[in-house]
Design goal:
The protein has 183 residues and is of the alpha+beta class. It has helices spanning 28-41, 132-145, 156-170, and strands at 45-47, 57-61, 76-96, 106-119, 125-131. The chain is globular. The structure holds zinc ion.
Length: 183
C-alpha cells in the first residue's frame, strides 16, 4: 500500500523518533509498504517519520543510482533501531534531495565511511561498515530519526535563499508527483 509522504513543515519530521520492539512486533508489513511508497515516489530511502510514524526505522535501496553511478554498491535493506557507531574518512560532497522536500536539491557534506548496527525486518542483527553512496543514504535517513532534514546542514546563506521554497512546501503550495499527507 502506498502511504502518503509527510513533507517539510509537518511536526513529525522534527521529533526524535522512538526505538521500536524488534522481537515482538512484525515489521514486515510496514517495511513492505515503505518500499512500495519509496519506489512509487522514485526515492532511494524512506524513514518512518516521512510516513508519519515517529519510529526508528528506515528503508533504503541504492539500485536506482546505478544508472548514473555504475560502480555504486547495490544495497537494499530495512534498518530498524539503527545506531551509527562510527563515522570517519574524508568529507564527501553530494547533491541530495528528499521526498519530504520536493524539488529541492543541494550539496551536503558528510563523512565517507560509517559503521552501523541495526536489525532488519526479519529480526536479524547486522553490524556493518558502509561507504560511498550507501553511507550517504544511510546518514540522510538516520538524520530523519533525529528530527533533522538535509537542509539543516546548509549554510545560513543557503537557508535564506531556500526560505521561500521551504515555506511554500510547509504551506502546501508545492505539489509533488506523489501522494503527500494533507494537514
Ligand atoms: Zn529525506
Amino acid at each position: 500500500m502506498i502511504l502518503p509522504i509527510y513533507v517539510y513543515g509537518e511536526p513529525v519530521l522534527r521529533k526524535t523518533a522512538e526505538e521500536v520492539d524488534v522481537e515482538n512486533t512484525d515489521w514486515k508489513p510496514l517495511v513492505a509498504d515503505m518500499y512500495e511508497t519509496m519506489y512509487h515516489a522514485g526515492g532511494v530511502g524512506l524513514a518512518g517519520p516521512q510516513v508519519g510514524k515517529s519510529i526508528r526505522l528506515f528503508v533504503i535501496d541504492s539500485e536506482p543510482f546505478k544508472e548514473s553511478f555504475p560502480n555504486v554498491r547495490i544495497y537494499k535493506s530495512a534498518f530498524i533501531n539503527p545506531v551509527i557507531t562510527k563515522q570517519w574518512g574524508d568529507d564527501f560532497v553530494f547533491s541530495e534531495g528528499c521526498l519530504s522536500l520536493p524539488r529541492i536539491n543541494e550539496d551536503v557534506v558528510r563523512k565517507s565511511q560509517i559503521h552501523v548496527e541495526f536489525y532488519d525486518e526479519n529480526g536479524n542483527f547486522h553490524d556493518e561498515d558502509f561507504d560511498g553512496l550507501v553511507a550517504r543514504i544511510i546518514q540522510h535517513e538516520y538524520d530523519h530519526l533525529d528530527g533533522k532534514v538535509f537542509v539543516d546542514h546548509l549554510s545560513q546563506i543557503k537557508k535564506m535563499v531556500l526560505k521561500r521554497q521551504l515555506s511554500d512546501i510547509a504551506n502546501g503550495k508545492t505539489c509533488a508527483a506523489y501522494k503527500t499527507h494533507r494537514k
